[in-house]
Amino acid sequence: MLRLLLVLLTLATPAFSETRRASHCIALAQAPGLEYLHKASFRDPLPRNSVRISYIAHASFLIQAHDGTSAVTDFTGFIGNTRFLPDVVTMNHAHGTHWTEHPDPAIPHVLRGWDDLGDAADHHLDLGTMLVRNVPTDIRRFGGVEENGNSIFVFEVGGLCIAHLGHLHHEPSDAQYAAIGRMDVVMAAVDGGMTLDLPTMMRVLRRVEARVVIPMHWFEGWTLDAFLAGMSDVYTIENNGQSALEISLKTLPRQPTIHVLAPHFLRDP
Hints:
By secondary structure, the protein is an alpha/beta fold. It is built from 4 helices and 16 strands.
């Protein structure tokens, strides 16, 4: 068992160095499951060790730690009528709706899911209450494949492992699954064609066994409906019109749950 664990850790951290905080998501232990989650405004304070996830649009989410540390996924340059600036933005370049060439220079950390030199992007950003890292994936490009063209980003915050699968074009390899580690919450594209087809995406989600799945990146209601129908044998469906949720290790649902959030641009009071 020890040898197996060492192999998994080796696969999962190809660029690991002693200066990096070890990932608690790449572990065999499972988080406890207790109760659930509730709605809040993105400007409201958070209880300690809680995380707020707000669905902004398309594939963009705001992830906030209790101390205010924040990240926006698949940042396009616009998050709403607000002066709010996140500490971190992540981007993928499969399409222009997932990145911008001109992020606000006041944003402290801009993490691209690709490397302009053609290498694999390698991020391991430790902000204390939030650790942001990436797992490179390939994308389809002009009838071929662009290796390491995008990334799955993992946010370790409040003891939770939150994975944003990005513009995923293929099922992760065993090494990539190991590098991602445990997933407590996962944002998954369910358009059924621009990214993964629905059967493959459902297979991926069944394998990772996240307690909370948040669908994103759908263009027609029928693809979302088909995804929910295909997963309803295992997952509870929550669809109450909320655009945000608060969650912690203590409030992870016992039953795996798909939580449908309504996209809503951020707006100052």
